[in-house]
Amino acid sequence: MEKSGKRGKLLNAIRLELIIARNILKSLYYNLRIHFSNKSLSENHFNYWSEPDHVNFAAFQKIESLMGGKPQVIIETGTSAWGTESTRFWDAYVRKYGGEVWSVDIRSEPKKRLKFQTSRRTHLTIGDSVEFLASDTVENPTIVFLDSWDVDWSNPKPAAVHGLKEFKSVLPKLQAGSYIFIDDSPSTLDYIAAINQDQANEYLREEGVLPGKGADVLKMLEKGGVEPIFHKYSMILETPDKWEFKDHS
Ligand SMILES: C[S@@+](CC[C@H](N)C(=O)[O-])C[C@H]1O[C@@H](n2cnc3c(N)ncnc32)[C@H](O)[C@@H]1O
User: Fold this and answer.
1) Number of domains in the chain
2) CA distances in angstroms from 165 to 95, 201, 216, listed in the order given
3) Ligand 1 atom nearest 85 alpha carbon
4) Helices 86-97 and 2-35, packing angle to 10 deg
5) The pTM is what?
6) What pLDDT digit, counting tens, does each position of 117-145 carry?
7) 80 Cα: distance to centroid of ligand 1 (angstroms)
8) Residues of the domain holding 195
């Protein structure tokens, strides 16, 4: 029993090293390729690291245009793992236009997987996102990407609760004009798999919003009269001059 446990661990470690080696080669080729490309970063990113018809492609195109080729201080919760490889996208942006990326993940594996593949402008940290957002490391962010606690569509409330905790944690740090991009927060049922739609409808009836990482943030925003400036599968908010929440609980 103990032997097979040790063997499993060893095989996993070898597998991870092989993935890292392959990704180092892939990212060297990618950085060369985008250097000579006249396509947008989002087009290159989704073609190479994801799929061009990915549900989040439009949101990344939008945030790229909002960033406008200017340096940005980007904060991300949930480092590239099983998502859209977002950390690589932010890193490519700051490599090209300047700024910094701070990404946090509660597990150490995403950071290991990105070993030797991000620039010195990108800082990968390990810890809880809510604590990280409240820490002194997060200072004057211009872009905040919230993508940590995975949505379990059959039990979506915990992800929404965590999303709101993250939002409240970073709220005091946000300057007017900065953007908060929250992943997995669908605007319509069409973005939710058919198998989860009945439950999502029930959630909508009970909570007044569809389930997702940003569901409780949306409920709080309703109290402040702020609407997302972009909302499809994910949503983007722009920090107003003043948040005016009637009830901040
Ligand atoms: C959806 S994945 C992130 C995907 C990544 N943003 C991308 O697009 O490639 C979610 C990540 O959040 C991390 N996570 C879950 N709960 C967390 C927490 N409380 N604090 C920080 N990270 C957390 C998980 O370990 C996982 O790696």
Assistant:
1) 1
2) 30, 24, 9
3) 9
4) 30
5) 0.95
6) 999 999 999 999 999 999 999 999 999 99
7) 8
8) 2-238
